[in-house]
Amino acid sequence: MAVGLPGAAWAQAGLAQPMRFGILPLGGAFESRNDWEPVLADLSRMLGRPVSVLSVTSYEALEQAIQRNEVDMAFLSGRMALDAVTQRRMRVVAQVTRHDGLPGYRALLLTRKTGPLRTLDALLAEPGRWRLARGESRSVSGFIVPQLQLFLPHHIAMETRFASELVGTHQATALAVANGEADVATNNTADFERFRLQFPVEAAQLQVIWQSDLIPHAQIVVRRDYPEALQRQVQSFLVGYARAKGPRGDVERGKLRALHDLAGFLAADNDSLLPAARLAYQLARQNAMAAQWVNEAARQARLQRIESSYAEQLAVLRELGP
After folding, report:
1. Can you tell me the distance from the alpha carbon of 96 to that of 262, in angstroms, rounded to the nearest whole number?
2. Please, is 58 exposed, middle or buried when counting C-beta atoms within 10 Å of its C-beta (0-12, 13-18, 19+)?
3. Which residue, among 96, 80, 86, 83, has the nearest Cα to 216 in the 3D structure?
4. What angle do CA 106, 173, 114 make, to 5 degrees?
5. Exposed / middle / buried, residue 295 (Cβ in 10 Å: 0-12, 13-18, 19+)
6. Residue 75, Cβ neighbours under 10 Å: how many?
7. Tens-digit pLDDT profile for residues 46-79
8. How does pLDDT run across 168-224, given as a tens digit for each residue?
9. How many CB atoms lie within 10 A of CB 143?
10. Are 92 and 159 in contact (CB under 8 A)?
11. How far apart are CA 158 and CA 114, in angstroms?
12. Residues 6+ apart with CB under 8 A from 270
């Protein structure tokens, strides 16, 4: 669905095909579409061309759409943005900011205040006793960071050590714990704040038992084969959005508050993905060290491939950098 002018009006005006904007699934697909459309309508008017919205229900669906060249621009978290840049000919033009002023957010583990699982020690002592609700494997806060910073150092693989697992969005995982369908859920500070506003009764039943180090905010990526002038236009729009004083700025700031409580966008380039590459590398090494191997030579061969892959990613990011 294109935002801005009606489709017939664009066709009569003979304007370009829509710029297709892919949205990382936060909450429901319909909700994410509604949240982004006001901002994308403003982008459409500035560019003088339609902007269509692709809102999906999973990271995998968005990844497949990017692979099929059905996405020209997207809002992506670190790992997906990293893959889009190093494998799918896209580049970073901006990074989101939030009102708390922090340069990132934190992954969380949630449990019910009155449930059987109330402490981190109890979780780590008997993981096989508990039901886990987590994000998809490409989710930085829903999987990668909890696995890397908490579970693997305690010799726990999230995919295999729990009694059961439910995989979904941050909203779905929090609801699963609140409704008694899971004992513990991965989440993050930004999405849990939003959850508190949307589901205050359910949120009041939950507690945080662990939080991670800071994770860099999500990026906006654009196809590299778009004209340089168009990429600069998009970046200029994002960086200037909601910065103006007066009524127009107030309206734009209201649109961003409704959009995951964003404060605005900062100019960024592919260097902003270096922390994401480091996280992916650390997780791959931890997995290799924790896995069972037929012999030590097989483990070392895997570690060498990980080192080589990481070096290649860094080379690509620096080559495509500022």
Report:
1. 7
2. middle
3. 96
4. 90
5. exposed
6. 22
7. 999 999 998 888 888 899 999 999 999 999 988 8
8. 999 999 999 999 999 999 999 989 998 999 999 999 999 999 999 999 999 999 999
9. 23
10. no
11. 24
12. 85, 91, 92, 317, 320, 321, 322
Tokens, residue 180: 């008694």
Separate counts of helices (H) and strands (E) for the chain? 13, 12
User: Length of the chain, please?
Assistant: 322
With 0.85 as the threshold, say if the pTM is over it. no
35-52 as b/e: b if 16+ CB within 10 A: bbbbbbbbbbebbebbbb
Cα gap 287→168, rounded to integer Å: 22
* Rounded-to-integer distance, Cα 87 and Cα 40, Å: 26
Q: Is 269 in contact with 322 (CB distance < 8 Å)? A: yes
Q: What is the 3-state secondary structure (H, E, C) of 82-136?
A: HHHHHHCCEEEEEEEEECCCCCEEEEEEEEECCCCCCCHHHHHHCHHHCEEEECC
Q: Are 276 and 46 in contact (CB under 8 A)?
A: no
